[in-house]
């Protein structure tokens, strides 16, 4: 018999077995790289800014001449003119001279600081400076944000819009990223029909391929296909093998019948997959299977939609992080007051669906097979395997799915 | 002079002015409705489940005959056979009879509960029942999850994969949703060049159209186009007017020069837009403009990339929620220990970029115009306008961008 694993053991094992999964890399334009994971560190090949910039609207000066400036004894400088936005300054500023520079404008040669316009007065060709400046005051020096050869983004970074901002600032046209993880999603069970069909008595419409595949797409994976397969061993085995030909992950959700559960184990044995996990101490979702085949991942979810969804949510982000070599992420949460008692099973970590609303946390209890609660839930709470439940009034952390 | 508004006043005003923005609706297939916002309530037109289902593998019985069953005095019933998964039961179960039903199988007529298989023994044609059952025990009654005419999803719901699950379970083929909000994103400034160009001294590459448009796409809006416009009043005005012809929102980020700032106000005046906000007590991001034109939204961001990004993040989700008629959402957070002092300006609410890592919160200080901190930041903390800062060691809440 296979030992039922704890959630923590399962995650550790996933890390051990899938951290070296081979993923192809390719070049993508930086501006189209959103959501991809960097396969190489990015170093700056330019300085940002690439010229000394003023950070205020004001007058460029040599700071030393303003040292004693005050409103009672101001310093008077000759006004040479104005640096235009977007243009290189042609001015050479001596100690007796100044030039107007707009915010973001090029600091003229000879100047080493900018007096804010509020601290000056313009009199014909002269500028009255009422305040001292210090060296490089109100100046963003060339390379002070990013210098050539700085490490800017690390391998394993999932590229977001802020990263695209820095890549465009640096003029990095293309980046090397991993191809996105490809998944095949299969629902099995003699009772399952496609949603456009009218189910007869005894049949139900397929739900899992939709909840699972949209979840996967939402966290940035590619779902190449979704299949519904009746309880037919050879077809099921062929679908899994075919799936591994063109995908990195095959995810099935088992029909609830005993037959289907056995089929999955039998397929894993026949194709010589390495069975890693067969049963997890999680509620709902105990009958979960994880295996490795040709360095690819098989993830067998329970058939019941809530169980399948909770198990997917609990493990897939860690799976993806390990595969891509990303840093493990903490989960953000809301805090709120639990409004009803929740019973849980000692020995199994319980994921309780809840509706969080403005600090109130309403547990949504589901009988096996119920859908509405899953649709109402906007989060879940986690109850320790060492507890028998939580009483109403407890302050709890509510996590969101997909985070 | 226009009064500088607080953040809370600004959000209230947005709610007042944009809650009735007209948005076209259309029909979309339920399985392709991910991320759309429901424009009509959804009522169930079927029962879920649509037949009485067993929730366990076991024997269907009339509960009354099992009332006195125990392992010492079991009840013996005649085994009529097996209900197959996905098939309608043809059995009629009398008080002396039973039928095997798999999890999810159809409860046969005459039975009103299911004894778990673990609490029975099969002896040839007879089943020994060792435990009593109560009425409807281990049965999911027809319509008990969802009944015909139940309100299932409310108008204003952003459809996620769990909602698609319930829609497919119900056989709802299409739903009525709002067309997605369309945005035009404009960067202005004589110093701005497109990222594929090599900036001369005095010029910088455009960043804002990328950070802003990818952010908008990430929260589910459509960016129809991005433009870079030099400081040319007529071109700027024309771009905004053209933008309103085919978009619901026009978002500009101003060049940092005084000229550009004046241009925006001047355009709003010339096109008879209703200027709502001109200056917000937020740091960074004070020079922000919000206006209404033909019941559409103009959002003028500051030019500095961090300021533009912080202002966008602070207001856009509320704008979108009001426009679509969605419920306002709380923000999830991490908690961690601030590792350095942060100074803030009393009278302005401060959004401080931070790097959150495993309970540690490192503030990322930026001079005006710096990019690297924005790229390193994975969140921000909010410092009250009634405070002058936070000291190292304070426990703080870290929010994520885009939540």
Oligomer: homodimer
Main sheet record of chain A: 6 strands, mixed
Spatial arrangement of strands, main beta sheet of chain A: 7-4-6-5-9-8
Can you tell me the CATH topology of the largest domain in chain A? Molybdenum Cofactor Biosythetic Enzyme, Chain A
CATH level-1 class of the largest domain in chain A: Alpha Beta
SS field, number of helical segments of chain A: 7
Walk me through this protein's architecture.
The structure is a homodimer of 403-residue chains. Chain A has 403 residues and is of the alpha/beta class. Chain A has helices at residues 7-18, 161-169, 208-218, 233-246, 258-270, 305-324, 372-376, and strands at residues 25-29, 42-43, 53-54, 58-61, 75-82, 97-101, 113-116, 120-123, 126-129, 139-140, 151-153, 174-178, 182-188, 192-193, 204-205, 222-229, 249-253, 274-278, 282-283, 289-293, 296-301, 333-338, 342-343, 349-357, 360-363, 379-383, 389-390, 395-399. Chain A folds into 4 domains: 7-23 and 179-324, MoaB/Mog-like domain (Molybdenum Cofactor Biosythetic Enzyme, Chain A), CATH 3.40.980.10; 26-48 and 144-178, Molybdopterin biosynthesis moea protein, domain 2 (Alpha-Beta Complex), CATH 3.90.105.10; 53-140, Molybdopterin biosynthesis moea protein, domain 3 (Molybdopterin biosynthesis moeA protein, domain 3), CATH 2.170.190; 333-399, MoeA, C-terminal, domain IV (Beta-clip, Beta Barrel), CATH 2.40.340.10. In chain A, the strands form 8 sheets. In chain A, strands 7-4-6-5-9-8 form a 6-stranded mixed beta sheet, with no helix packed on it. In chain A, helix 1 crosses helix 6 (305-324), helix 3 (208-218) packs parallel to helix 6 and helix 4 packs across helix 5. Chains A and B meet through helix 2, strand 15, helix 3 and helix 7 of A and helix 2, strand 15, helix 3 and helix 7 of B.
